[in-house]
Amino acid sequence: MTGHGRKTGRQGAAGRAVVYLRVSSKGQVDTDYDPEGNSIPAQRKACLALAERMGLEVADEYVEPGKSGRSIDGRPAFRKMMGRVRNEGDVAYIVVYMRSRLFRDTADAAFTKKELRGLGMTILSVKDPTDDSPTGDLMAHMVDGFNEYQSRVSGQDIAYKMEAKAARGGTPGRAPLGYLNVREMVEGREVRTVVPDPVRGPLVRMLFERYATGQFSFKGLRELAVSAGLRTRPTKTYPAGTELSIHKIGQILRDRYYLGYVSFNGAEYPGRHEPLINADQFERVQEVLVRQRGAGTRERKWDHYLKGLVWCARCGRRLIIERGKSKTGRLYFYFLCMGRNEGDGCKLPRFPVAEVESAVAAHYATIALSPNEAAFTREGLERVGRADAETTSALKRNLKRERKRLAALEDQVLDLIGDPDWPTEKLTAKIQGIKAQRDAVEAQLAEADRPRLDEAVATVAPFIDLLARPRALYESFSEDERKVLNTICFTRLYLDADADRRASVLRGGVSESIAPLIAFRDRERRNGTCPEAGAVLPMGQGSSANPMVELRGFEPLTFSMPWKRATNCAKAP
């Protein structure tokens, strides 16, 4: 899929490509005089160089500044590019700097790659190229999975730090209305903290005080807030802020942050910020809320380890648990489609809970790996990990040699300062050029030190053992353990009635944890290429191209680099 030289049947498309460029946050395009920042131009340069080497005409480029990669749904430039690919058919290649610019979600990657393959499209990646072979496909799956792994790990790390900040009384994120996020200098250090907003703080306190009297409805409280001039904070879209909605007022009156507490991930901690109201005022407000709006009264919900996992295959709505009672007074439970429960016309029958449990257990057989498939996949992953480690080691050795050479060159230039035969301006420019090259080498060394595919291989390996006997394992688990295993293996399971009107899983989505393994297994089954256990997994499938990152690293090389450059020149002078 991502190999070079893949033939295409798209008329007028051969030899033509589009370039896709993306950075994850707006902060990455606000770092230079150029409004695109530094990353987008660097990606463009590398992608155009690859297109030139491949002899491709770049028809257009699609730039996504400051868009997260976790989902393609929130990326308009990506959707526009895919619309062109589907409807115009005038290009055969998508050129990207690295695969993570396209995908950070393995489910998105699987669906998109399948569609692109059907359209005869090829993805060309500067940083992590792979060939169009079974091993190349496995590597692409692994890289996409590892990119999502890194994204999720980074997210978990940020969440951990935010929770640690909350536990110390700090405010993770933006403070609510009535407070300001500020920076203070403490013993020479800049500290980010929260202080009451001198303008909006007293007005928010007024909302609590007035509502505590029991004489104001939400509508009346909103009119009071509007007349007092209380508005939301200014934004780029609304420089003067907006009037508070009734929903926002309800949120404020229930928020214990104003009482001096910080909440994060369902846990509450004493905050360091100054409370706007006291405990008596807050309790009186909650009593009025219960009396006037019925807050605190909820229907009882029935829990089950399959809730949230099973969905209706007919209307796409979630299945919920409903309680029934027989004429004899015996209670029983069943799963019911929300579309039917809310009168949307869905005709999916009610299914007894035990019937749905059996259908889900039976579906686990669809994700099983045979012993040969498990051995084949495990050996392939280990080989990929070893190849990546060897390539990374060679890359680091070359980078360190280049760093040493640049340091020596810099010393030579410094020795020339003061020599009348060498103008100061030229020497200064030379030193600056050397420094820029050295910084680039240091950045590539730092990148090479990051965890790579070996960690991803170690992460995926336990799932191979799990998939060797998933149904038997699932049926031996307790309900709590089954819930965890369901989360590991599936995103959603869609149920319908079979010929006997019994519950059956019609289709399901596997989770990002096992998606690469299942996709690889299914493709090998279609091709019939899985060997006997213990056979060596071939690397390259006849291609001499290294499926990992080239030794030249992640950026196009300058003429000072002693190994292969990204230009048409074979060697540096």
From TrEMBL:
The Recombinase domain is annotated at 176-295
- SMART domains to which the protein is assigned, alphabetical: Resolvase (SM00857)
- List, from the UniProt record, the residues annotated as the active site of this protein: 24 (o-(5'-phospho-dna)-serine intermediate)
Keywords attached to this entry: Coiled coil, DNA integration, DNA recombination, DNA-binding
Which residue windows are coiled coil? 392-444
Q: Where would I find the Resolvase/invertase-type recombinase catalytic domain in this sequence?
A: 16-169
Entry keyword annotation includes Ubl conjugation? no
PROSITE patterns this protein is in?
RECOMBINASE_DNA_BIND (PS51737), RECOMBINASES_1 (PS00397), RECOMBINASES_3 (PS51736)
Which InterPro entries would you find in this protein's record? Answer: DNA_bind_recomb_sf, DNA_bind_recombinase_dom, Recombinase_CS, Resolv_N, Resolvase-like_N_sf, SSR_resolvase, Zn_ribbon_recom_dom
Q: One Pfam match, by short name?
A: Zn_ribbon_recom
Q: What protein am I looking at? A: Recombinase family protein
